[in-house]
Automatic annotation (TrEMBL):
<feature type="binding site">
    <location>
        <position position="219"/>
    </location>
    <ligand>
        <name>L-aspartate</name>
    </ligand>
</feature>
<dbReference type="InterPro" id="IPR036901">
    <property type="entry name" value="Asp/Orn_carbamoylTrfase_sf"/>
</dbReference>
<feature type="binding site">
    <location>
        <position position="165"/>
    </location>
    <ligand>
        <name>L-aspartate</name>
    </ligand>
</feature>
<comment type="function">
    <text>Reversibly catalyzes the transfer of the carbamoyl group from carbamoyl phosphate (CP) to the N(epsilon) atom of ornithine (ORN) to produce L-citrulline.</text>
</comment>
<protein>
    <recommendedName>
        <fullName>Aspartate carbamoyltransferase</fullName>
        <ecNumber>2.1.3.2</ecNumber>
    </recommendedName>
</protein>
<feature type="binding site">
    <location>
        <position position="104"/>
    </location>
    <ligand>
        <name>carbamoyl phosphate</name>
    </ligand>
</feature>
<dbReference type="GO" id="GO:0005829">
    <property type="term" value="C:cytosol"/>
</dbReference>
<keyword id="KW-0665">Pyrimidine biosynthesis</keyword>
<dbReference type="Pfam" id="PF00185">
    <property type="entry name" value="OTCace"/>
</dbReference>
<dbReference type="GO" id="GO:0004070">
    <property type="term" value="F:aspartate carbamoyltransferase activity"/>
</dbReference>
<dbReference type="Pfam" id="PF02729">
    <property type="entry name" value="OTCace_N"/>
</dbReference>
<feature type="binding site">
    <location>
        <position position="132"/>
    </location>
    <ligand>
        <name>carbamoyl phosphate</name>
    </ligand>
</feature>
<comment type="pathway">
    <text>Pyrimidine metabolism; UMP biosynthesis via de novo pathway; (S)-dihydroorotate from bicarbonate: step 2/3.</text>
</comment>
<dbReference type="GO" id="GO:0006207">
    <property type="term" value="P:'de novo' pyrimidine nucleobase biosynthetic process"/>
</dbReference>
<dbReference type="InterPro" id="IPR002082">
    <property type="entry name" value="Asp_carbamoyltransf"/>
</dbReference>
<feature type="domain" description="Aspartate/ornithine carbamoyltransferase carbamoyl-P binding">
    <location>
        <begin position="2"/>
        <end position="144"/>
    </location>
</feature>
<dbReference type="InterPro" id="IPR006130">
    <property type="entry name" value="Asp/Orn_carbamoylTrfase"/>
</dbReference>
Length: 313
């Protein structure tokens, strides 16, 4: 593959290849004493039309740790503010001979549109409520490292699934890897016909979390809600906020995950979020860099090999 636009369509073997490679980058990322020169002379642009803390920073770190020149662009500082279209922005960047373009956009499908226009590798850093593939990959790496496998695990994804690209990418990945996925949410926060994606649907945390190995919490994405009932914080926490009481029905060693940013006291209780034994929230952040190093390595591999072959001729 030249691009990583989503998890949908990836085979288990391809996912395992990325996770295995990322595993190898974990130590290098912990002790980056000597920078790799794998991406020496390569240019990576991070083009973010939506806010980000984790994804943008970790893509920047990943590129830099592999030796690439990394440029960050956000909507506020680009000519998009002057009315330039997405396609014109893409064509402009393409003329500068990039190797990798990391894109986040508020519209589902915008990253694919852009990928069709450029010569470099495009990585989806989140498009609308469609997909956020590197998030699902880092989540899978975190689970695999902690629980040793993905196959056969019961994973409960809880909260605003309707607006969540993280949920969609995770559902595709976990299904491909043989996990049992449950979506736990009020009916108003579930996409219609979500069962078609091969998940179990639960409207109560009590049944949804029963015997779960992994409990993955999602925030209410109020910025994507329009014209629908938005529950009050207290009401939402009462029914769907993760606390120790609701966690009791899960496996005794069930792990807690959250892609961030989290809203403490809304979808997750602070004590649970900070539980060092069970919460993997900061492991997820750490592993995000290793996963993004692996993705940058794999997607630019063909280009690097053909450049080497060209130089040898
Ligand atoms: N999980 C995630 O995508 O976080 P950011 O929005 O901070 O990048």
């Amino acid at each position: 593959h030249r691009h990583l636009l989503g998890i949908e369509g990836l085979r288990a073997g391809e996912i395992t290849q990325i996770l295995d490679l990322a595993d190898g980058y974990v130590e290098q990322n912990r002790r980056p004493v000597k920078k790799s020169n794998l991406l020496d002379g390569r240019t990576q642009v991070n083009l973010f039309f939506e806010n980000s803390t984790r994804t943008r920073t970790s893509f920047e770190l990943a590129g830099k740790r592999l030796g690439a020149d990394v440029i960050n662009m956000s909507t506020d500082s680009s000519s998009v503010k002057k009315g330039e279209t997405l396609i014109d922005t893409a064509m402009t960047l393409n003329a500068m001979h990039l190797d990798a373009l990391v894109v986040r956009h508020a519209d589902s499908g915008a990253v694919k549109l852009l990928a069709d226009k450029v010569n470099c590798s495009v990585i989806n850093a989140g498009d609308g409520h469609h997909e956020h593939p590197t998030q699902a990959l880092l989540d899978a790496l975190a689970i695999r490292r902690r629980l040793g496998r993905l196959d056969g695990l019961i994973v409960a994804i809880c909260g605003d699934i309707l607006h969540s690209r993280v949920a969609r990418s995770n559902i595709h990945l976990l299904n491909a890897m043989g996990a049992r996925v449950r979506c736990v949410a009020p009916p108003t926060l579930l996409p219609s016909q979500i069962e078609r994606l091969g998940v179990e649907v639960h409207h109560s945390m009590k049944t949804g979390l029963r015997d779960a190995d992994v409990v993955m919490m999602l925030r209410l994405q109020t910025e994507r809600m329009s014209g629908q009932y938005v529950p009050s914080t207290r009401e939402y926490f009462y029914f769907y906020g993760l606390d120790y009481e609701k966690l009791e029905v899960a496996k005794p060693d069930a792990v807690i995950m959250h892609p961030g940013p989290m809203n403490r006291g809304v979808e997750i209780d602070s004590e649970v979020a900070d539980d060092l034994k069970r919460s993997m929230i900061l492991d997820q952040v750490e592993l995000g860099v290793a996963v993004r190093m692996a993705v940058l390595d794999l997607l630019t591999r063909e280009r690097r090999q053909s450049d080497l072959a060209g130089a040898a001729r």
